[in-house]
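Hi team,

As requested, here is the filled-out complex form for the nickel (II) ion run. I kept the field names the same as last time so the parser does not choke. Let me know if anything looks off before we queue the next batch.

— J.
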Amino acid sequence: MPKLLSEAQVKQYRSDGFVCPVDALSTEEAGEFLARMEDLESREPNVWARSKIKPHLLMMWLNDLMRNSKILDAVEDLLGPDVMAWATGHFDKKPHDPSFVSWHQDGTYWGLSEPSVVTAWVALTPSNRKNGCMRVIPGSHHQGQLPHRDTIDKNNLLSRGQDVEVKVDESEAVDLELQPGQISLHHTMLIHGSKPNLSDTRRLGITIRYVAAHVSQISGFKDSATLVRGTDAYRNFVAEPRPRRDFDPDAVDFYEAIVAESRRRKDAIAAQTKQDRLQSTTML
Ligand code: NI
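And here is what came back:
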């Protein structure tokens, strides 16, 4: 018996690559998390710029959110009993914000050993067609990893503007509309994106990337994660400290080491790509 999802929802996740909506937090709980986030933003205006990778290491409210038992019940229904929170992020569109997200698969640059990875997209405000909710192509995760190209557009919320290099039939897209406190869950290979916010209100979603404990980082990067359910018999990730306050100095030290490690990994990948290009040119 699943803990939170219905049997039909688990089946839908396997066949379509997503489930939406799932009632996780109450409206009040979602409001409390939003208020805690806005309070931190008002005290630390550069809070998101300072914590681009794994902001849950630095922000108490986000670390609490990723441990929410209802969200974890739903994730456990899909990943099994041993679950690590691996990454978090925010997808924020202010009123009339031209920001969008190009069609992509999440796992493209993550370097994880297998796709036992679920993203919980947690709505802290309403997310709907008018304000640029997430859109998905049902069943697209069955295609496996597809090639992507990097694009440059200042309004693209993705770090590399990655865009999947296959023709996406927009008529197949499904809008994942959510009320505050509701979540959607999607597979790491599912093609998805979103449009700009055409409304007068902020649209804010928090992403939490959960992996099954047996998943590992295979790109030569010493990666970290937080055990949030069950046990970690594999020790594939460095255990993350739980911050005792926002921007806890111990957590900041840990965070900076992770950022430096991540930068080394990106440089190594860039050097390898350059070398591959050089080799293919020499072979011509
Ligand atoms: Ni994504």
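Two things worth flagging: The radius of gyration is 19 Å. Helices lie at 7-16, 27-43, 60-65, 69-79, 249-282.

Thanks,
J.
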